[in-house]
């Protein structure tokens, strides 16, 4: 509950697992429309562990800032 309230107020930095991020997006607690930097640590390892759909969900989400307007590091 506290996390949701804090996210609704906005954040400059969010450190979160891929699954938790997808949950917050699905539930409408956060939007990706103002993301300037998106870093995905250990992406190769996550792909090996079967998280490809979760990663694709984030990078193809309609609210995600256009790639020309954000920096992504995977």
Automatic annotation (TrEMBL):
Transmembrane segments: none annotated. InterPro entries: DEAD/DEAH_box_helicase_dom, Helicase_ATP-bd, P-loop_NTPase. Keywords: ATP-binding, Helicase, Hydrolase, Nucleotide-binding. Coiled coil: none annotated. Residues 1-74 form the Helicase ATP-binding domain. GO terms for molecular function: ATP binding; helicase activity; hydrolase activity; nucleic acid binding. Pfam families: DEAD. This is Helicase ATP-binding domain-containing protein. It comes from Cylicocyclus nassatus.
């Amino acid at each position: 509950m506290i996390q949701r309230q804090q996210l609704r107020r906005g954040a400059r930095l969010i450190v979160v697992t891929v699954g938790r991020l997808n949950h917050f997006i699905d539930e409408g607690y956060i939007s990706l429309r103002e993301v300037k930097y998106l870093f995905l640590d250990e992406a190769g390892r996550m792909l090996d562990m079967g998280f490809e759909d979760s990663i694709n969900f984030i990078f193809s989400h309609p609210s995600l800032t256009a790639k020309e307007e954000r920096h992504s590091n995977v």
